[in-house]
Amino acid sequence: MHVHAAFQRTQGQNTISWTALMSAYVERRQSRDVIKTLQRMVDEGVIPDQITLASSLTSCIGESSLPDGKWLHCFVCICGFDSDGVVGTALLNMYGKCNSMEDAWRVFNKLPERDVVCWNAMIAVCGQNGYGHWSLALLRQMGMANLAPNKITFISLLDACANEAAIEEGRLLHSWLLQHEIESEHIIGAALVNFYGKCGYLEDAQRMFQKLPLRSLSSWTAIITTYSQRGLGRESLCLFKQMMEEDLVPNEITFVSLLSSCSYAGMTETAWQILYMMQQYYGVTAKSEHFDCLIDLLGRAGLLIQAYMLIDKMPFHPGANTWMAFLGSCKLHNNNHQAIISAEHALEVDSSSAAPYVLLSNIYSTICCEEGSAVFATVEDFVEHDDHDFVVDS
Questions:
Q1: Do the domain assignments include residue 31?
Q2: How far apart are the first and last CA of the chain?
Q3: Which of 58, 265, 316, 357 is the most buried (most CB within 10 A)?
Q4: What domain count does the chain have?
Q5: Residue 390 pLDDT level (bands cut at 50, 70, 90)
Q6: In sequence order, which ranges of 129-216 are alpha helices (DSSP H)?
Q7: What is the pLDDT of residues 93-149, one digit of tens each?
Q8: Which of 183, 164, 182, 162 is nearest to 226 (CA)?
Q9: CA distance 112 to 94
Q10: Which range of residues forms the domain containing residue 21?
């Protein structure tokens, strides 16, 4: 790793150099390496500051990272930053991304001072975890606390409504924004396009996009994503070409939407061209989300060997989402052997997830092998001892 080599050559390492080293692990979501770096840092007599700690927490994403997140939370308390607003907000976001709402609420309620940034974070966390009604309740509580919502507040609220397809609540927010004449501001406009798109109202999303006086990258990405989610891959690519004519530079989120469009439309060759363009012309490093789109595309096309080879060549360890995408393709094409292998990998990454067990049980039920009974017993035990909501596809 180039960052590690540069760190070794640095004389008199300080908080800044240690944080730079750790950021390489954070970017790759390697929370265990982040923890080891913090331990080494303290052993060398360097005390982490709030920026270092807040950055470290962003390495934890998904339920499998929750134990590491809790270790980092304890470390934050030992360092005396548990009441700090910046670190507290990072803790909220971390628990939200690890799907631990109980811990997120505990952090929020313990913060001695809660500014608008903190309230916005909690509103966003509720929305991201499917509790949009809590997000709206928090907006009312903000008013009772004499705190005025800002643009980020409304973006988080619109995202919460979008995630729950709460069209009526979202339309009420839209009316309020219209009355206060901030509907057309580019970040608000992009959030409205995204809201209508996620709720399945393509015409409303188009109308909102056309109304925007200034179409920023975020608004273009929102409308491209809207078309992608509706399975309109070729239309998404046409919009991308129009965006390029306005001299806007796409970012990694834009490329995720484009690759997803290719996956839905089955455009394998185009997807590879987009990946090449993304890295060679725009300098955007491919992340797990980009690879997951390609793996899904190859899998849908029945190119399971190529998909598996791509997983093997990824520059970082594949996550649970990657293996689940491949597992779904194996099930689609009745490749039971590869499906079992990918399910085992998915469980190694995140043993708390019900999805691999469910897909495995379906596979074993179709091939009627003796091993299936053990899997069924595991699923029954999993459901009996934990509260999980999932649906078994027939």
A1: yes
A2: 46
A3: 357
A4: 2
A5: very low
A6: 132-144, 151-163, 167-179, 186-198, 202-211
A7: 999 999 999 999 999 999 998 999 999 999 999 999 989 889 989 999 998 999 999
A8: 162
A9: 19
A10: 1-88
